Amino acid sequence: MPLTIRSNCCFPVHCAVTYNAALFVKLPLTYCSGFWSPRGGIRLKRLLVITLLLLNSVPACAKWMAVGGNDQVGMAVAQLSLTQVLDPKPAAVVPVQRTETWWTTQHEQTLARIRQGAVDLLFIGDSITQRWADEGHRIWNTYYGRRRAVNLGFKGDGTEHVLWRLLHGEIDEIQPKLVVVMIGTNNTGRRQDPPEETAAGVQEILTTLRTRLPTSKILLLGVFPRGASADDPLRRLNAAINDRLRHYADNQQVFFLDLSWRFLDDQGRLSQNLMPDYLHPSERGYQVWADGMEDMIRKLLGE
Known about the structure:
Helices cover 41% and strands 14% of the residues. Residues 1-46 and 52-82 have low confidence and may be disordered. The protein has 2 domains: 2-88, no CATH class; 101-301, Rossmann fold. The strands form 3 sheets. Strands 8-7-9-10-11 form a 5-stranded parallel β-sheet, with helices on both faces. It contains 12 helices and 11 strands. It is globular and about 45 Å long. A hairpin with a 2-residue loop joins β3 and β4 (23-24). 34% of the residues are buried.
């Protein structure tokens, strides 16, 4: 696929791009200004750095520069599509399929469960949600076993991965009474996305849910706190995300609940009894979570 990149720099770049399965390979590149005109190929990392610089994506450029070796670069950009490179939209709002075998298998198993129907309560999220099946399984069975609940938590997912899953079958042919959503801490931890970008990804998820599940209520949870202390930079990012998420509630279909305070002491320190790694709840933490939203869940389920 031919590609022309023009920028405000003094050297416009024209290059031929071979694009296959969201992976860039070695490409010929010519600087038309005559500064440099190799006939052979250049390494993937250099092309990515140049391209991202020209697209004014300095943080992304720094990320790729920090990756060493062709194999590592290939892995790092395996989820980076040509559309994402050329489109200025934040990564948080562009649906992305992950390529790990376990992730694909879990997605297929989820589709099989969704096709069975009988779903009244749906949980959507990342590893914090997925671990209801591990540390939180006893509490899950007590609170949600009788409510025909399904867990759509996938470890490591960001907003972009949840978007892809929702658009590829995970909410097809069902109309749950209530959908509980918490997502965004991996956008913070993996790329340190600006809070407005992560919030925009969550908003895309809400738009998808409202469009595809028009009769379902949505309980949007604030992203849980992380890091031991109140001044932890990732904690602050999550708090800034929550400041934006609360404005998405219309209190008719979408409702917002921030349970962050339940995990903190009066000085803002995160309890290690509730989150041993300062990120994922313990069994006791899942009990605090369940207790904290039970009244809201009863109300929204019409119990």
